Amino acid sequence: MIQTILTPLDGSTHAQLALDLSIDIASRCGARLILLHVGVGNENVPEEIFNTLARELRQAESSGEETGIPPHSSQRVRVLGYMGKRFLHQARHVANKRGVENVETVIDLGDAGERIGHHAKQSAADLIIMGSRGRGELAGLVLGSVSHKVFHTAPCPCVTVHHKDGKPGPIEIRNILAATDGSDEADRAVDLASDIAAACGAKLTLEYVMWRGPSLEQLRATVDLDQLGKEAFDELDPARNPIAEHVSSTWFPPVVSTATQEEIGHQVLERARRAAEAKGVGEVALVLIDGDPARKIVQIAKREKADLIATGTRGLGGAKGMLAGSVAYKVNHAAPCSCMVVR
Protein backbone atom coordinates (compact mmCIF):
# COMPACT_ATOMS: atom_id res chain seq x y z
CA MET A 1 0.00 0.00 0.00
CA ILE A 2 1.21 3.51 -0.80
CA GLN A 3 1.84 5.42 2.43
CA THR A 4 4.42 8.07 1.42
CA ILE A 5 4.81 9.88 -1.91
CA LEU A 6 7.77 12.13 -2.73
CA THR A 7 7.25 14.75 -5.43
CA PRO A 8 10.08 17.05 -6.58
CA LEU A 9 8.93 20.47 -7.81
CA ASP A 10 10.78 23.09 -9.83
CA GLY A 11 8.01 25.23 -11.27
CA SER A 12 8.03 23.54 -14.68
CA THR A 13 4.91 22.39 -16.52
CA HIS A 14 5.94 18.76 -16.12
CA ALA A 15 6.41 19.25 -12.37
CA GLN A 16 2.93 20.73 -12.16
CA LEU A 17 1.52 17.64 -13.84
CA ALA A 18 3.47 15.46 -11.40
CA LEU A 19 2.00 17.45 -8.50
CA ASP A 20 -1.51 16.98 -9.86
CA LEU A 21 -1.03 13.21 -10.13
CA SER A 22 0.61 13.03 -6.71
CA ILE A 23 -2.29 14.85 -5.07
CA ASP A 24 -4.80 12.59 -6.78
CA ILE A 25 -3.09 9.37 -5.66
CA ALA A 26 -2.27 10.67 -2.16
CA SER A 27 -5.87 11.76 -1.57
CA ARG A 28 -7.24 8.40 -2.73
CA CYS A 29 -4.72 6.35 -0.74
CA GLY A 30 -4.61 8.54 2.36
CA ALA A 31 -0.86 8.87 1.86
CA ARG A 32 1.64 11.35 3.24
CA LEU A 33 2.83 13.75 0.52
CA ILE A 34 6.38 15.16 0.69
CA LEU A 35 7.01 18.11 -1.64
CA LEU A 36 10.69 18.67 -2.39
CA HIS A 37 12.47 21.55 -4.09
CA VAL A 38 16.17 21.20 -4.82
CA GLY A 39 17.81 24.49 -5.66
CA VAL A 40 20.98 24.64 -7.72
CA GLY A 41 23.11 27.73 -8.38
CA ASN A 42 23.01 27.43 -12.17
CA GLU A 43 19.22 27.30 -12.52
CA ASN A 44 18.06 28.99 -15.71
CA VAL A 45 15.62 31.58 -14.34
CA PRO A 46 14.53 34.39 -16.69
CA GLU A 47 16.01 37.72 -15.59
CA GLU A 48 12.61 39.39 -15.24
CA ILE A 49 11.33 36.67 -12.91
CA PHE A 50 14.60 36.62 -10.94
CA ASN A 51 14.48 40.41 -10.39
CA THR A 52 10.83 40.25 -9.31
CA LEU A 53 11.60 37.52 -6.78
CA ALA A 54 14.62 39.47 -5.51
CA ARG A 55 12.42 42.52 -4.84
CA GLU A 56 9.81 40.41 -3.08
CA LEU A 57 12.47 38.81 -0.90
CA ARG A 58 13.93 42.21 0.08
CA GLN A 59 10.46 43.51 0.95
CA ALA A 60 9.67 40.42 3.01
CA GLU A 61 12.94 40.66 4.94
CA SER A 62 12.64 44.41 5.50
CA SER A 63 9.13 43.93 6.92
CA GLY A 64 10.45 41.38 9.40
CA GLU A 65 8.77 38.41 7.74
CA GLU A 66 10.34 35.04 8.54
CA THR A 67 11.47 33.75 5.13
CA GLY A 68 13.62 30.87 6.30
CA ILE A 69 16.33 31.90 3.83
CA PRO A 70 19.87 31.90 5.34
CA PRO A 71 21.06 35.55 5.30
CA HIS A 72 24.73 34.63 4.79
CA SER A 73 24.08 32.96 1.42
CA SER A 74 24.78 34.67 -1.89
CA GLN A 75 21.97 36.72 -3.40
CA ARG A 76 21.40 34.17 -6.16
CA VAL A 77 21.11 31.25 -3.74
CA ARG A 78 18.83 33.28 -1.47
CA VAL A 79 16.52 34.27 -4.33
CA LEU A 80 16.39 30.70 -5.65
CA GLY A 81 15.63 29.45 -2.15
CA TYR A 82 12.83 31.98 -1.85
CA MET A 83 11.48 30.87 -5.22
CA GLY A 84 11.47 27.27 -4.00
CA LYS A 85 9.59 28.22 -0.84
CA ARG A 86 6.94 29.91 -2.96
CA PHE A 87 6.58 26.83 -5.17
CA LEU A 88 6.17 24.64 -2.10
CA HIS A 89 3.81 27.00 -0.27
CA GLN A 90 1.49 27.16 -3.25
CA ALA A 91 1.70 23.40 -3.84
CA ARG A 92 0.89 22.65 -0.19
CA HIS A 93 -2.13 24.94 -0.39
CA VAL A 94 -3.41 23.14 -3.50
CA ALA A 95 -2.86 19.71 -1.90
CA ASN A 96 -4.67 20.70 1.29
CA LYS A 97 -7.55 22.15 -0.70
CA ARG A 98 -7.91 18.86 -2.58
CA GLY A 99 -8.07 16.77 0.57
CA VAL A 100 -4.45 15.80 1.30
CA GLU A 101 -3.97 16.65 4.97
CA ASN A 102 -0.53 15.17 5.62
CA VAL A 103 1.78 17.38 3.53
CA GLU A 104 5.44 18.12 4.26
CA THR A 105 7.70 20.54 2.39
CA VAL A 106 11.48 20.29 2.08
CA ILE A 107 14.03 22.63 0.49
CA ASP A 108 17.52 21.38 -0.29
CA LEU A 109 20.54 22.43 -2.34
CA GLY A 110 22.81 20.34 -4.52
CA ASP A 111 22.62 17.83 -7.33
CA ALA A 112 18.90 17.35 -7.91
CA GLY A 113 19.03 13.67 -8.89
CA GLU A 114 21.21 12.75 -5.91
CA ARG A 115 19.16 14.79 -3.41
CA ILE A 116 15.86 13.33 -4.64
CA GLY A 117 17.24 9.82 -4.08
CA HIS A 118 18.53 10.84 -0.65
CA HIS A 119 15.18 12.20 0.51
CA ALA A 120 13.30 9.23 -0.94
CA LYS A 121 15.48 6.90 1.12
CA GLN A 122 15.40 9.06 4.24
CA SER A 123 11.61 9.34 4.22
CA ALA A 124 11.08 5.67 3.26
CA ALA A 125 9.04 6.83 0.29
CA ASP A 126 6.89 4.21 -1.40
CA LEU A 127 6.71 6.17 -4.63
CA ILE A 128 8.46 9.07 -6.37
CA ILE A 129 6.33 11.03 -8.83
CA MET A 130 8.20 13.55 -10.94
CA GLY A 131 8.06 15.36 -14.26
CA SER A 132 9.88 13.87 -17.20
CA ARG A 133 11.61 17.22 -17.79
CA GLY A 134 12.30 20.23 -15.65
CA ARG A 135 12.90 23.90 -16.31
CA GLY A 136 15.78 24.52 -18.67
CA GLU A 137 16.12 20.92 -19.89
CA LEU A 138 16.20 20.45 -23.65
CA ALA A 139 12.73 20.08 -25.10
CA GLY A 140 13.94 17.38 -27.46
CA LEU A 141 14.74 14.99 -24.63
CA VAL A 142 11.99 12.65 -23.53
CA LEU A 143 13.66 12.22 -20.17
CA GLY A 144 15.52 15.18 -18.74
CA SER A 145 18.87 14.72 -17.04
CA VAL A 146 17.38 14.74 -13.52
CA SER A 147 14.54 12.32 -14.20
CA HIS A 148 16.99 10.14 -16.16
CA LYS A 149 19.24 9.87 -13.10
CA VAL A 150 16.38 9.21 -10.69
CA PHE A 151 14.97 6.60 -13.09
CA HIS A 152 18.23 4.65 -12.81
CA THR A 153 19.06 5.14 -9.14
CA ALA A 154 15.83 5.65 -7.16
CA PRO A 155 15.51 3.42 -4.06
CA CYS A 156 11.78 2.93 -4.68
CA PRO A 157 9.30 2.83 -7.57
CA CYS A 158 9.35 5.96 -9.68
CA VAL A 159 6.72 7.54 -11.92
CA THR A 160 7.83 9.90 -14.67
CA VAL A 161 4.92 12.05 -15.81
CA HIS A 162 4.54 12.93 -19.47
CA HIS A 163 1.90 14.96 -21.22
CA LYS A 164 -0.49 12.28 -22.40
CA ASP A 165 -0.23 12.19 -26.21
CA GLY A 166 1.61 15.50 -25.92
CA LYS A 167 -1.45 17.26 -24.50
CA PRO A 168 -1.21 19.36 -21.33
CA GLY A 169 -3.80 19.19 -18.58
CA PRO A 170 -4.63 17.25 -15.41
CA ILE A 171 -3.95 13.53 -15.42
CA GLU A 172 -6.73 11.19 -14.35
CA ILE A 173 -5.89 7.53 -13.79
CA ARG A 174 -8.67 5.62 -15.50
CA ASN A 175 -6.68 3.00 -17.42
CA ILE A 176 -3.45 1.32 -16.24
CA LEU A 177 -1.30 -1.09 -18.24
CA ALA A 178 0.95 -3.41 -16.23
CA ALA A 179 3.48 -5.47 -18.20
CA THR A 180 4.44 -8.76 -16.59
CA ASP A 181 6.72 -11.67 -17.43
CA GLY A 182 6.23 -13.48 -14.13
CA SER A 183 9.51 -12.26 -12.61
CA ASP A 184 9.69 -10.97 -9.04
CA GLU A 185 10.01 -7.33 -10.12
CA ALA A 186 7.12 -7.70 -12.57
CA ASP A 187 5.00 -9.16 -9.75
CA ARG A 188 5.80 -6.10 -7.65
CA ALA A 189 4.83 -3.84 -10.56
CA VAL A 190 1.50 -5.65 -10.85
CA ASP A 191 0.93 -5.33 -7.08
CA LEU A 192 1.59 -1.57 -7.07
CA ALA A 193 -0.42 -1.01 -10.24
CA SER A 194 -3.26 -2.95 -8.63
CA ASP A 195 -3.12 -0.76 -5.51
CA ILE A 196 -3.40 2.37 -7.64
CA ALA A 197 -6.11 0.90 -9.89
CA ALA A 198 -8.18 -0.14 -6.87
CA ALA A 199 -7.80 3.28 -5.23
CA CYS A 200 -8.67 5.15 -8.44
CA GLY A 201 -11.40 2.80 -9.64
CA ALA A 202 -9.36 2.30 -12.81
CA LYS A 203 -9.32 -0.48 -15.37
CA LEU A 204 -6.16 -2.61 -15.22
CA THR A 205 -4.81 -4.29 -18.35
CA LEU A 206 -2.23 -7.02 -17.76
CA GLU A 207 0.12 -7.73 -20.67
CA TYR A 208 2.48 -10.66 -21.28
CA VAL A 209 4.84 -10.36 -24.26
CA MET A 210 6.24 -13.60 -25.62
CA TRP A 211 9.85 -13.29 -26.76
CA ARG A 212 13.04 -15.33 -27.09
CA GLY A 213 15.07 -13.89 -24.23
CA PRO A 214 14.50 -16.00 -21.08
CA SER A 215 16.45 -19.16 -20.38
CA LEU A 216 14.68 -22.40 -19.42
CA GLU A 217 15.66 -21.87 -15.79
CA GLN A 218 14.07 -18.41 -15.80
CA LEU A 219 10.90 -19.62 -17.49
CA ARG A 220 10.45 -22.48 -15.00
CA ALA A 221 10.71 -20.00 -12.13
CA THR A 222 7.60 -18.16 -13.37
CA VAL A 223 5.17 -21.06 -13.51
CA ASP A 224 3.71 -23.92 -11.55
CA LEU A 225 5.20 -26.86 -13.46
CA ASP A 226 2.51 -29.22 -12.22
CA GLN A 227 -0.09 -27.10 -14.03
CA LEU A 228 1.65 -27.38 -17.41
CA GLY A 229 0.74 -29.86 -20.09
CA LYS A 230 3.17 -32.72 -20.83
CA GLU A 231 4.62 -31.13 -23.98
CA ALA A 232 5.31 -27.83 -22.25
CA PHE A 233 6.73 -29.63 -19.22
CA ASP A 234 9.09 -31.62 -21.45
CA GLU A 235 10.24 -28.52 -23.35
CA LEU A 236 11.29 -26.91 -20.07
CA ASP A 237 13.30 -29.98 -19.05
CA PRO A 238 16.99 -28.91 -18.76
CA ALA A 239 18.13 -32.41 -19.72
CA ARG A 240 16.63 -31.94 -23.17
CA ASN A 241 18.20 -28.52 -23.77
CA PRO A 242 21.28 -28.13 -21.54
CA ILE A 243 22.65 -25.07 -23.38
CA ALA A 244 19.43 -23.12 -22.98
CA GLU A 245 19.17 -23.95 -19.27
CA HIS A 246 21.14 -20.94 -18.05
CA VAL A 247 21.77 -19.00 -21.27
CA SER A 248 19.42 -16.50 -22.87
CA SER A 249 17.86 -17.94 -26.01
CA THR A 250 18.23 -14.55 -27.70
CA TRP A 251 21.49 -15.78 -29.20
CA PHE A 252 20.30 -19.32 -30.06
CA PRO A 253 17.47 -20.83 -32.10
CA PRO A 254 14.23 -20.98 -30.09
CA VAL A 255 13.97 -24.10 -27.94
CA VAL A 256 10.50 -23.42 -26.60
CA SER A 257 7.56 -23.64 -28.98
CA THR A 258 4.96 -20.93 -29.43
CA ALA A 259 2.39 -23.23 -27.85
CA THR A 260 4.53 -23.56 -24.70
CA GLN A 261 5.16 -19.81 -24.58
CA GLU A 262 1.42 -19.24 -24.78
CA GLU A 263 0.78 -21.75 -21.99
CA ILE A 264 3.34 -20.01 -19.78
CA GLY A 265 1.91 -16.60 -20.64
CA HIS A 266 -1.64 -17.63 -19.81
CA GLN A 267 -0.55 -19.02 -16.44
CA VAL A 268 1.40 -15.84 -15.56
CA LEU A 269 -1.51 -13.62 -16.59
CA GLU A 270 -4.07 -15.62 -14.64
CA ARG A 271 -1.89 -15.43 -11.53
CA ALA A 272 -1.59 -11.66 -11.99
CA ARG A 273 -5.35 -11.39 -12.49
CA ARG A 274 -6.03 -13.16 -9.21
CA ALA A 275 -3.59 -10.88 -7.39
CA ALA A 276 -5.23 -7.76 -8.86
CA GLU A 277 -8.75 -8.89 -8.04
CA ALA A 278 -7.68 -9.76 -4.49
CA LYS A 279 -6.64 -6.12 -4.10
CA GLY A 280 -10.06 -4.92 -5.18
CA VAL A 281 -9.51 -4.07 -8.85
CA GLY A 282 -12.94 -4.20 -10.45
CA GLU A 283 -12.05 -4.42 -14.15
CA VAL A 284 -9.11 -6.52 -15.35
CA ALA A 285 -8.23 -7.33 -18.97
CA LEU A 286 -5.56 -9.75 -20.18
CA VAL A 287 -3.35 -9.39 -23.27
CA LEU A 288 -1.03 -12.13 -24.56
CA ILE A 289 1.04 -10.97 -27.52
CA ASP A 290 4.20 -11.90 -29.38
CA GLY A 291 7.01 -9.57 -30.43
CA ASP A 292 9.54 -7.04 -29.18
CA PRO A 293 8.61 -6.27 -25.54
CA ALA A 294 9.11 -2.48 -25.61
CA ARG A 295 7.25 -2.01 -28.89
CA LYS A 296 4.37 -4.23 -27.84
CA ILE A 297 3.98 -2.54 -24.46
CA VAL A 298 3.78 0.88 -26.12
CA GLN A 299 1.43 -0.50 -28.79
CA ILE A 300 -1.02 -1.87 -26.23
CA ALA A 301 -0.75 1.30 -24.12
CA LYS A 302 -1.88 3.32 -27.13
CA ARG A 303 -4.65 0.87 -27.97
CA GLU A 304 -5.98 0.87 -24.41
CA LYS A 305 -5.54 4.65 -24.03
CA ALA A 306 -3.53 3.98 -20.88
CA ASP A 307 -2.91 6.81 -18.43
CA LEU A 308 -0.10 4.90 -16.70
CA ILE A 309 2.24 2.06 -17.70
CA ALA A 310 3.82 -0.09 -14.96
CA THR A 311 6.91 -2.23 -15.56
CA GLY A 312 9.73 -3.76 -13.56
CA THR A 313 13.25 -2.47 -14.06
CA ARG A 314 14.57 -5.93 -14.81
CA GLY A 315 12.78 -9.10 -15.81
CA LEU A 316 13.61 -12.56 -17.03
CA GLY A 317 16.10 -11.50 -19.68
CA GLY A 318 18.53 -9.86 -17.24
CA ALA A 319 20.74 -7.35 -19.02
CA LYS A 320 18.79 -7.85 -22.23
CA GLY A 321 15.39 -7.85 -20.59
CA MET A 322 13.45 -5.53 -18.34
CA LEU A 323 16.50 -3.52 -17.35
CA ALA A 324 16.68 0.25 -17.08
CA GLY A 325 18.35 1.14 -20.35
CA SER A 326 16.50 -1.62 -22.19
CA VAL A 327 12.79 -2.44 -22.14
CA ALA A 328 11.68 -0.22 -19.25
CA TYR A 329 13.82 2.66 -20.45
CA LYS A 330 12.66 2.32 -24.08
CA VAL A 331 9.06 2.25 -22.94
CA ASN A 332 9.59 5.39 -20.87
CA HIS A 333 10.99 7.18 -23.91
CA ALA A 334 8.28 6.11 -26.35
CA ALA A 335 5.23 5.89 -24.08
CA PRO A 336 2.16 8.00 -24.83
CA CYS A 337 1.51 8.42 -21.10
CA SER A 338 3.21 8.41 -17.71
CA CYS A 339 5.39 5.44 -16.73
CA MET A 340 6.03 3.73 -13.40
CA VAL A 341 9.17 1.66 -12.95
CA VAL A 342 9.18 -0.75 -10.01
CA ARG A 343 12.26 -2.26 -8.38
Describe this structure in words.
Helix 2 crosses helix 3 (75-97), helix 6 (184-200) packs across helix 9 and helix 10 runs parallel beside helix 11 (327-334). The protein has helices at residues 13-29, 47-62, 75-97, 112-122, 145-153, 184-200, 216-220, 230-235, 258-278, 293-304, 327-334; strands spanning 4-8, 32-39, 103-109, 127-131, 158-161, 175-179, 203-210, 283-290, 308-312, 338-342. The protein starts with a strand and ends with a strand. The protein has 2 domains: 4-161, Rossmann fold (3-Layer(aba) Sandwich); 175-342, HUPs (Rossmann fold). Helix content is 42%, strand content 17%. A 10-stranded mixed sheet has the order 3-2-1-4-5-10-9-6-7-8, with helices on both faces. The protein is built from 11 helices and 10 strands. It is elongated and about 80 Å long. The protein is of the alpha/beta class and 343 residues long. Strand 1 (4-8), helix 1 and strand 2 (32-39) form a beta-alpha-beta unit. 47% of the residues are buried.
Which helices and strands occur, and which strands form pairs?
Elements (H helix, E strand, L loop, with lengths): L3 E5 L4 H17 L2 E8 L7 H16 L12 H23 L5 E7 L2 H11 L4 E5 L13 H9 L4 E4 L13 E5 L4 H17 L2 E8 L5 H5 L9 H6 L22 H21 L4 E8 L2 H12 L3 E5 L14 H8 L3 E5 L1
Parallel strand pairs: 1-2, 1-4, 2-3, 4-5, 6-7, 6-9, 7-8, 9-10
Antiparallel strand pairs: 5-10
Primary descriptors:
Rossmann fold, elongated, 10-stranded mixed β-sheet, single chain, about 350 residues, about 15% strand, alpha/beta, 11 helices
